[in-house]
Structure formats: C-alpha cells, structure tokens
Design goal:
- The chain is mainly alpha-helical.
- Helices cover 64% and strands 4% of the residues.
C-alpha cells in the first residue's frame, strides 16, 4: 500500500519556525486555513485505517479527495497570481502549508512539477525549506515513474514501511542530511508508529 499522506503530526514536526511579519498576512492565513481543513480530513482517514473501519474509511477518502481538489484549484490561482508563496510574502508557516497542499496534488503531477521548479531556486535564498523541497522532489519522481533520492515516499508492506523506488540507497542518509532530514531508519520507525493499529 502506497502512503500518499503527510500526517498531521509529521506536518507539524516539519514546519519551520516562525519569522518576521509577512508582506501578505491575509494570503498566509488563507493558505493555512486551506491546509488545516485538508489535514483534518487526513487525520480522520488515518484513524479509519488504524481501526480498519471500512465505512469510515470510504467517507474519509471522499473528504480527502474533495479537499485536495478544492485546495489544488485555489493554490493554482495563487501561484498564477504571485508565484510560489515565499516565506517573505506569506510567512514560514503558510509557506510550509502551501508545500503540503501541492505535496498532495497527486492527481496533477504537472502542477507538482511546476511548483517544484518554482521552489528550487528559492531554497538557496531561504524562502523555501530544503526539507519541503526534498519531499516534493521525491513525490514528483515517484508520480512520474522515476526513482526518489531522499527516501521520503513509503509503501506499507505487511505493516512495514519500505521506501518506494529508492535510487542509490547506500548514500541516502548523506543526501537526507544535506536537506535537513534525519536518518532514513528513524523516519521508517516514525511512519510505522503512525500507521500502527491502536493497542487494545
């Protein structure tokens, strides 16, 4: 089972610290509100998966798809208007949440690729997190039939998290370190804990 989610707890852990007041706080708040609605739906989906509640799972999947569709359309309008929402424009939290929205646009890999191209030069300027860029780079690679290089995209195999199509696995921790990610083994343990069934 491929994992196309970035759960609430992990998204919060990846979020960069706050910075000075953004140039467009209203846009920042709009992006945050969009992402929170999406994450609430994903939280319900993960809960249904953990409980193996098929009825709740179907409802949650529908909710997630709806939120992704609405958010994707809105983020496209934002990007067409102002480019990628940088930390300077919308603040670090909103910039991170914009990444989270595009990370989940698996139905539109061309838009993901477009955003990745916009984000890449902004990493060196401190306007985009290297960690966010790495997650999206891996996502685009997997969604377009390629191989990921940071090991952020996982599949669940008999309850175990396995990196999906990972290039040069012996050097993955070196690449992860360069973008601010911890060791792959630690990430695998975290993913397995998040998706483990609740203890009775």
């Amino acid at each position: 089972m491929a994992l196309s989610l970035v759960p609430v707890a992990l998204a919060i852990a990846l979020a960069p610290p706050p910075t000075s007041a953004p140039l467009d706080p209203d846009l920042g708040m709009r992006i945050i509100a969009m992402s929170m609605a999406e994450q609430e739906a994903r939280f319900r989906l993960i809960g249904a998966m953990q409980r193996n509640d098929q009825a709740a799972l179907q409802i949650a999947m529908h909710d997630v798809e709806r939120e992704d569709r609405v958010n994707g359309a809105e983020l496209k309008r934002i990007v067409a208007s102002v480019g990628w929402p940088t930390y300077t424009r919308v603040g670090r939290e909103a910039g991170h949440m914009a990444w989270l929205i595009v990370q989940h646009q698996d139905a539109d890999p061309e838009f993901q690729k477009h955003c990745l191209r916009l984000m890449e030069p902004l990493v060196a300027k401190g306007e985009v997190s290297g960690t966010d860029f790495a997650y999206l780079a891996d996502r685009v690679a997997i969604n377009t039939g390629g191989m990921q290089i940071y090991g952020t995209q996982m599949s669940l195999v008999n309850g175990k998290a396995v990196p999906t199509r990972l290039r040069d696995p012996h050097r993955v921790d070196e690449r992860r370190r360069q973008v601010g990610l911890g060791p792959l083994d630690e990430y695998i343990r975290l993913i397995e804990q998040m998706y483990a069934p609740p203890k009775s």
